[in-house]
Amino acid sequence: MKRLAVLSPEARLRDLVDMIRQHAAVVLGHPDPASIEPERGFLDMGFDSLSALEMRNRMVAVTGRRLIPMLLFDYPSPVALAAFFDEEMFDKQPRGIDEDLVSASAADLFDILDQELETPG
Predict the structure, then answer these.
(1) How confident is the model at residue 6 (pLDDT cuts 50, 70, 90)?
(2) 62: which of 3, 12, 27, 39 is 20 to 30 A away, CA to CA?
(3) pLDDT digit string, tens, across residues 11-54
(4) pTM for the full model?
(5) Is 97 helix (H, G, I), strand (E, B) or coil?
(6) Residues 45-70 as b or e (16 or more Cβ within 10 Å = b)
């Protein structure tokens, strides 16, 4: 996974999709990862709850991250799962935080909090 960090976002996403397709092919017993369509739903491919757990376990081993058992149901295709991994592992911007807050000083943050907590008087 470390080698992905140096790739462009497009190349990284493509490699993540390819990796997911390779593991999905093994779990489903397909001889070729090309048989796994990137945008096709995992359930439409034939995944059931047991094979979805097997796939999740493979993703845990590859990524080194704790992943929910419902992973394939929350991210229902190779493309969706790759986008999730890309955001979780390579997104440098803290999620849900305005850029102004990232560069704000402690004093600025306290001023913002004070403004938020003021009651109209």
Answers:
(1) confident
(2) 39
(3) 889 999 999 999 999 999 999 999 999 999 999 999 999 999 99
(4) 0.72
(5) coil
(6) bebeeebbbbbbebbeeeeeeebeee
SS3 content of the chain, % helix, strand, coil (to 5): 65, 0, 35
Which one, of 54, 47, 98, 97, lies nearest residue 73 by Cα? Answer: 47
Query: What does the pLDDT look like over 101-115, one tens digit per residue?
Result: 556 677 776 776 667
**Mean pLDDT of all residues in 51-64:** 93
- Considering only CA atoms, give the Rg of the chain: 20
φ, ψ for residue 51, nearest 5 deg: -70, -30
Q: Domains of the chain (ranges plus CATH)? A: 2-96 (1.10.1200.10)
